[in-house]
Amino acid sequence: MIHDARRAATLAIGNELIEGRHVDTNSGEIAARLAELGIEVAETVVVGDERARVERLMRELCAEFPIVIATGGLGPTLDDLTREAAADAAGVPLELHGPSLDHLRTIWAQRERPMPATNERQAHFPVGAQIMANPVGTAPGFRVWVGGGVLAALPGPPREMRAMLEGELLPWIRATCGQGPAIAVRSLYLCGLPESQFAEDVGPWMARGENPRVDVTAHMGVLSVKVVARQTSRSAAEAAVEARALELAQRFAPFLYSREHPALERALFEALRARGWRMAFAESCTGGALAERITRVPGSSSVFLEGWVTYSNGAKIRRLGVPAALLEAHGAVSRETAAAMAEGARAESGADLAVSVTGIAGPDGGSLEKPVGLVCFGVATAQGTQTLERRYLRHGRDAVRAFAVHTGLELAWRAVAGPPAPPDSSARRELR
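RE: above sequence
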């Protein structure tokens, strides 16, 4: 039994993490899920596949934290050393776990392939360990006591880690740990607002120790806002967090696109469906990425008609009816061309809304008048056509394209949902 386990640590294991070939996303996800249980991850460590170093870190972390969660190093190869290091840290040998070996053999039999001998390593665990099943992979996990703390070892692949965390470890922690404060969490997702402006407007609600506390992260023009309340009862925590979330929703109404999910394309889909509208995209520099985003949403065929990737001037003329004289006078990257592209897409498709994007993603093709990073947008509806110009300067090609996709989705959402961004904020915002 772990009493009052309010603090934990994570240990990400793998040379690929140290060398930068992969990014450790597991630790952040684990921390977020533990936070919902009132458990704070106070330390995160990344270490390579070195048995002695991994063992030392396991012992040191378990001496300080009641719960230590390690990810990675449970594969079948000789550099997968988490099992050995954990046994060393616990001061016990490894032993073969028959049911796990049988399960591995079953998996390989289902694949109609003989199981390599190296996979038998995955059925060895420190003596006394509690085995955690892996429903989506071949590497079981385990829990073992190391000194005064429990070490939980999960697979490194995020899909396998997530399945074991949700199905095995979190239920065990809930049943085993002493009762902590009741926690309630609400999320809000905003677009079109700088992170610094949000922080200035929210003020002390983001201070450490504030209850409820507001946290925010910014990525590609989206602010992900999390509100966390801790109270002595679940009902009190729910009431406190909902009251603060409602205040935020009212204060930032022009920028709030969802209280449920971060995907802007899903908010666009829901707005189109609610209004009974259908739309189309006309793209140049984004190469079809806007259409790809909206078609990620299940059911998007009910609201999305078609899209064009008119990369050349000839394609803009042939497919969208952009006048050659307009292109000659203003160029492919201009408000005028963006407007003509959007109007052409709307006329050709019969859509209620069409959004266009044309820009200079680079690294070549810019000029003093039209630098790399200049992107123009058009939004055409029955009420008329609006255009917008954005300059994503000092960014690489991929970033310019990603920013343009976000802005195209935001403009489409605003055209349907109706909350125009305040002019001063829209004019000065810089996407991140």
